[in-house]
Write a structure and sequence with these properties.
heterodimer; A: alpha/beta; Rossmann fold; five-stranded parallel β-sheet; 5 helices; B: alpha+beta; Beta-Lactamase; 5 domains; five-stranded antiparallel β-sheet; 20 helices; 22 strands
């Protein structure tokens, strides 16, 4: 049994934030925080210490990889597991991302109703 | 004394005229003695003797002066010297034959004569001997015939040896003048307007030359021409003799050239049928023979004195005129031929020039490389592309021109073209400006008549632009596919959330609409995934991570993945795979298997079975996915692997396919160096089969075979 979790999503697409929020809540009753940029996400992560971070790879200005590195570099956030959301489905690309030290990679398009199960599986909840 | 002599004898003066003759001699010469006195000796013999030279005691001279004795040697050779003694200066030996006409030959007396110089002061003695008996006559006639034939053959040979009309005519007049001992021999050409001119002449130096003079039409009226055209021959022994029928004005005319006797034979022209020249439409000229026309006249003049022309001389002249006719026809033929050759040569030169222009103007490298892999020809483009002069390229080896790295990629195709195969491949080069170029190269073998490859033509085009566009296309597809994923995620998730009913309950129709939206979003997701997959595989962005894996394992995974779909359709998936090694990228083989399984399930109906088998076949492993579905029409079996080529496009919609699945499968299998195909019969189900290498070694072998196959196609 997975207890209610608090998930931070960092994605510049607001519709993604919305569908993820509904998916997490409807399926698992999890709470969700949303940030539209890397810096905003880092700030929220520091403030709220979420159980996991869903981080979009492709974002303007500060992209997912840079955001991840910043989170890792900060002792306040370095222990929070990060899962990349990416449109790049190629195995090689997934491996490259995983090599950075993230907990997992979920490729778009996904069904947000399936997200809690996928996250739980990745993070062994 | 003369009359008492038993022999037939005559005495000649220094000019060769008969000054005394006895009866036997008169009988032989065929005239009463009175009429013989004063006549030139040579009017009776066919072997000319120059008495002025005899008088001076000169040696027989060469042709060059335009006169020549029939040498004693020749007579000796053609038949024994008549008096059994060697010829010597002053004793000219000859043969007189009364007539050469073959019908008369044997019935005419055959007379031998010998001439002894200066037997008395300023007198020469001619002694005749009638050979009488027919056998001897026949012998002599035969010898004479042979001699004439030899003379004629000699002239004819000279004529035939040359194709130049001018040379032929010159040879003719020279020889005729020599043989007849005439003072002037000329060839007079009749021109179209009725005028004419001598165009070749051999004349003794003491007489005026007529060569090149223009003769007005009055000298040679049209009716004369007509008669000559019909073959008339004119022999005039004495132009002043009224019986010769020459008009007074003409006598005056001819006498200005010292002409005392003349012999004229026509030269007729038998026009050769025109060889139709290509494109001249001259075929009508070949339809009917054209009439014989008078081309000109072969004329012999005697200027020193009047001369009784012999039939043999006439015959010789006529034969030679005939030879000239033949020569004219030949010359016309040669002329035609030369025209044709000239025309074709011009056409060839033009074509060559056009080809050269085209070859140089084409933005393509065109080269010829010999068996030793050295350039023998390069078009202008080589200079422009490589920055090397054409002269410096000639004879250079491919490696020298293109560099080691580029040459490495050439070696296989070069080997193949030298083995006689047309080969196409792609290569890269860096130009003198440092700019890279992508090249498409075709090698075409050059066979000799024996079928051996002498070398090959290389056609190289710059496909840098195409490659750039391909890269842009790939990039575009990639970007679009990625960009589509984010909105698709939103749509897909939103629809799924809606269909849970937890945000409110829709009417039944509303629910149906929602399902349609949901299904098609899923299809769109698959399509985007497939397009991206295909683009990646085709562009070579994807490298297959080959490793040793177990085919049975992959089949079990694929069945597990597709089991839910099969259950939903009421289809049984059946397989009992045993461990079979393959050298492959497990992810991609799994993708291929699930794709083929998905297709098989889609086209099966409730209760049917889809069977998967795998077996090692030599160096390869064969997978087969067998269904009991409707089967595929034969004409579709080949095209089915092409993109968007479903058997029935309505199937695609009904079955939710993207039209790219089989294309992706084919790309994956080909990247593995394997092959994929389908066997099917309407109503009997379909079997999709593919092979992949069993081991890394067989992979290498398959790759080279597959590469050859690609290059041949």
């Amino acid at each position: 049994m997975v207890y209610a979790k608090n998930i931070l999503i960092i994605d510049d697409e607001e519709t993604i934030q919305t569908v993820v929020k509904f998916g997490l809540q409807l399926t698992a009753g999890w709470d969700m925080l949303a940030a539209s940029s890397g810096p905003e996400g880092i700030q929220l992560a520091q403030q709220h210490q979420p159980d996991a971070i869903l981080l979009d790879v492709m974002m303007p200005d500060m992209d997912g990889v840079a955001t991840f590195k910043a989170l890792q570099a900060d002792t306040n956030t370095s222990m929070i597991p990060v899962i990349f959301l990416t449109a790049k489905a190629q195995a090689a690309e997934k491996s490259q991302l995983k090599a950075l030290g993230v907990s997992g990679v979920i490729t778009k398009p996904f069904n947000s109703l399936d997200l809690p199960e996928q996250i739980a599986k990745i993070l062994h909840w | 004394m003369l009359q008492r002599a038993n022999e037939a004898i005559a005495l000649l003066n220094q000019r060769g005229q008969i000054v005394a003759v006895n009866d036997p001699a008169a009988a032989i010469l065929g005239l009463p003695p009175g009429r013989l006195i004063g006549r030139p000796w040579k009017a009776f013999v066919n072997t000319p003797v120059d008495f002025s030279r005899l008088h001076r005691g000169a040696q027989p001279e060469d042709q060059a002066t335009g006169e020549k004795y029939i040498s004693a040697r020749r007579v000796t050779r053609s038949h024994a010297a008549p008096f059994g003694r060697p010829p010597h200066v002053g004793a000219h030996v000859g043969v007189h034959v009364g007539a050469l006409s073959p019908s008369q030959l044997l019935s005419q007396p055959i007379v031998e004569w010998s001439l002894t110089r200066n037997i008395l002061p300023r007198r020469h003695l001619v002694v005749f001997r009638d050979r009488g008996d027919r056998t001897t006559q026949a012998e002599v006639a035969l010898a004479q015939q042979q001699q004439q034939a030899e003379l004629f053959a000699e002239v004819a040979l000279k004529i035939r040896q040359s194709l130049q009309l001018e040379d032929i005519l010159h040879a003719t007049v020279t020889e005729v003048q020599r043989i007849l001992g005439a003072d002037r021999v000329l060839i007079y050409q009749v021109l179209d307007d009725g005028t004419g001119q001598p165009i070749s002449e051999a004349v003794l130096p003491q007489y005026p030359k007529i060569l090149g003079m223009q003769f007005p039409e009055e000298v040679f009226p049209t009716d004369y021409q007509q008669r000559y055209a019909e073959g008339r021959v004119v022999a005039i022994a004495n132009v002043r003799d009224p019986s010769a029928g020459l008009a007074e004005c003409l006598v005056e005319f001819v006498e200005q050239f010292d002409i005392k006797a003349k012999l004229i034979v026509p030269i007729l022209h038998h026009p050769v049928l025109q060889t139709p020249l290509a494109g001249t439409g001259a075929s009508d000229t070949a339809a009917s023979p054209r009439p014989v026309a008078l081309w000109g006249l072969l004329i012999a003049h005697q200027c020193s004195e009047s001369r009784q022309w012999q039939d043999s001389e006439l015959a010789l002249m006529q034969q030679l005129a005939d030879q000239i006719s033949i020569a004219l026809a030949q010359s016309q033929l040669v002329g035609n031929l030369e025209d044709v050759v000239a025309l074709r040569t011009t056409a060839l030169r033009q074509q060559e020039e056009q080809l050269r222009l085209i070859t140089n103007a084409l933005p393509v490298l065109i080269g010829y490389i010999d068996r030793e892999q050295c350039y023998q020809f390069n078009n202008q483009a080589y200079e422009d592309w490589l920055g090397l002069s054409l002269v410096s390229l000639r004879g250079k080896h491919l490696r020298e021109v293109w560099g080691a790295e580029s040459y490495d990629r050439m070696q296989l195709p070069v080997q193949k073209v030298l083995a006689g195969e047309v080969t196409t491949y792609e290569n890269e080069m860096v130009g003198p400006d440092g700019q890279g170029r992508s090249l498409n190269i075709t090698y075409i073998p050059d066979f000799d008549a024996a079928g051996t490859v002498q070398g090959f033509f290389a056609l190289t085009s710059d496909i840098s632009d195409r490659k750039a566009i391909e890269r842009m296309k790939d990039e575009f597809i990639s970007v679009v596919s990625h960009e589509l994923r984010t909105p698709l995620t939103s749509m897909h998730s939103a629809l799924k959330i809606l269909s849970t009913g937890r945000l409110g309950v829709l009417s039944q129709d509303g629910q149906q609409m929602l399902e349609i939206a949901d299904e098609n979003t899923e299809r769109l997701v698959r399509l985007v995934n497939n397009v991206l997959d295909l683009q990646r595989i085709e562009s070579g962005d994807v490298t297959m991570e080959m490793q040793q894996c177990d085919a049975a394992n992959l089949i079990i995974h694929a069945i597990e993945a597709m089991q839910p779909m099969a259950q939903q359709q009421g289809v049984t998936l059946e397989s009992q795979p045993s461990e079979t090694p393959i050298w492959a990228d497990a992810d991609y083989i799994l993708q291929t298997l699930t794709n083929l399984l998905s297709n098989a399930i889609k086209f099966s109906t409730v209760g049917q079975t889809v069977t998967i088998t795998v077996e090692k076949q030599g160096q390869q492993t064969l997978f087969q996915i067998c269904d009991q579905g409707p089967g595929i029409p034969e004409d579709n079996l080949d095209s089915i692997f092409e993109r968007f080529q479903q058997v029935d496009s309505s199937d695609s919609r009904r079955k939710g396919g993207t039209g790219l699945g089989l294309t992706i499968c084919r790309e994956i299998i080909e990247q593995h160096g394997g092959s994929i195909w389908v066997e099917s019969q309407i109503g009997q189900g379909s079997t999709f089969a593919f092979t992949v290498p069993s081991s890394p070694r067989s992979r290498q072998e398959q790759k080279s075979t597959s590469l050859q196959g690609k290059q041949e196609s």
